[in-house]
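Late entry, evening session. Most of the bench is empty. Finally got around to the prediction I had been postponing all week. Sequence below, unchanged from the version circulated by S.P.
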Amino acid sequence: MTHPLASDPRRATRLWRITSVIYLIGLVDFLVAFVLIFVAYFLSADVLSVIALYMFIAAWPVLFVAAVLDVLRHR
């Protein structure tokens, strides 16, 4: 029995694009939050540090979902 993605290369390509976009969103979110942490530290801005913290919290599930999709794509 073959895997459904092996029989349809168009679906595998579409899943690869979706996974790449999700990875990119998570990575950009993580990097922006990382920069905001330093900006908030140097400006002593509590609001920016809270925003950065929420962005870090939001980045992890996005990266986790992308990793799970990537594993499922390679199955």
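Two things to note before I forget:
The chain has one domain: 9-74.
The mean pLDDT is 81.
Will write this up properly tomorrow.
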